[in-house]
Amino acid sequence: MQIKKNDKEYDVVIVGSGAGGGMSAKILSENGLKVAVIEAGPYFDPADKDMKTQLRWPWESPRRGASTTRPFGDYNAAFGGWELPNEPYSTVGGTRFEWFRSRMLGGRTNHWGRISLRFGPDDFRRKDIDGLGANWPITYDEIKPYYDRVDKLIGVTGTNEGLHNDPDGYFLPPPKPRLSELLYTKAARANGVPVYPSRMSMLTKKLNEDRGVCFYCAQCSRSCAVYADFSAGSCLIFPAIKHGGQIDLLVNCMAREVITDDTGKATAVSYVSKDDRREYQVKGKVIVLAASACETARLLLNSRMKGQDNGLGNSSGTVGRYLHDSTGAGISGFIPSLMNRTRYNEDGMGGMHVYSPWWGDNKKLDFPRGYHIEMGGSMGMPMYGFGGGHQEVQKLLNYKVGGYGNPLLKEMKEVYGAFFYMAGRGESVALYDNYCEIDPNGVDEWGIPTLRFHYKWTDHERLQAKHMQETFRSIMTDMGGTVMTPEKTYEEDYGLLAPGAIIHEVGTTRMGDDPSDSVTNKYGRLHDVPNVYVNDAGTFASQADKNPTWTILALAMRNSEHIVSELKKMNI
Length: 572
Known about the structure:
Residues 438-556 form the Glucose-methanol-choline oxidoreductase C-terminal domain. The chain has helices at residues 19-30, 126-130, 140-154, 179-190, 232-242, 293-301, 390-396, 405-415, 459-478, 549-568; strands at residues 3-15, 35-38, 80-81, 90-91, 101-102, 196-197, 247-250, 253-260, 266-273, 279-289, 327-334, 354-355, 371-376, 419-426, 435-443, 449-454, 482-483, 532-534.
């Protein structure tokens, strides 16, 4: 294949346009650098009338909004999924791993839950606390100024509560709890579980002239046409370009490898254009990888440098290692007291208005790490199905099972809004033997070698899930509800979803002070290649019991300013 080379050299070439790539593009371009962003999917702007799905009705879709073409429903903003045509991956042994890819400008930030939690002081030093995993080479105090700036730049709802490991920040006014969330709050607190206003990256008041304010349509998963919720394209890349940032977007371009010269310095990124199926190279003084933890690991493992044939930056042998995802388990239930109630607008923001941060003392429990609780249940726009199937509700209420026409419609109106779910999102322990590698027998549509996954849950995660199930069932009962989810056993991992299903994978290029057991330093810079940085969640030494996005953003901001400083000092 002929490789098309362009003589133009950028100051920085960024692979990926999600949280890490978007923040990198904004910070670097605002500092006067010429930036190229390589994105594997198409251009996307939720304000474009031809791309917009917000405020469209289910009956406008031939599939009535069902998830037959997109994993979260026909109108979800995700261009991608756990399975992509002609982009395979494989697993070995007893591995269950589901790898979500979002091929579009802005990546996963277009359709995520926007739960925006800082890591706390303890989350950077877990090995000191329980002896497992590794400490981060940075502390909370080092990253706190960047969390503060992300809060102010992007906007996040919440309240300052003085919690040690769920730190305070700069918050916008949170919306009021919905009726079902008030029931949850009362029952959870009766069970010793704290409840606070949720921390979500939606604008409940005006932040700047580039973005609108949330109007409570509850459709953030469709990506907001007025840019009131956080997406990397809407809130980072577009404003940077609008205000003079020198950013070239190379969309529909699948990164193949990082090119290095005889000195070991990175000089370019090779990519395949999906439009003409030809291979190109784009030159850069600095290369920033922000393609997501597993995609960045794949890119490094598919790259070569002189004297090292096991992947770029992999002298430690740990690229792809220490892969871990959030734990996830949950239940759903039916609450009769919410039947036949007065109809009023319960839409609000897209997602929960309250949440429960981890409250337990692991020293008194049989598992080492915690979880937070997400929940939901309201009278938003109905979707296909009712809490696992209307027939089960009919049995519960002693109704005749089955039916059609007006009697069935009457029943559905009675139970509409009476369903509720709780889900735990917890921390797993990073292990060397949970990893991804290049599949020696697999390539994708563009001839790029694919990944193969090795991953197993341990009792650390299983017993955490058991605690989730017991807690959720107790709360649901105290809400006056009936649990509709069958109880899971140890052999069923107590209901744990497969690794990868929560889409929080981290750790494949973890940071550390010792090059023998880590891939990057504390600024995301490869130990082996001084002009290559990783600005996604691959650098995480551990996940924490929080969603990773706010930490990706804070680290990408910090790393990008370090790049600017090093370029000025001529250290790169």
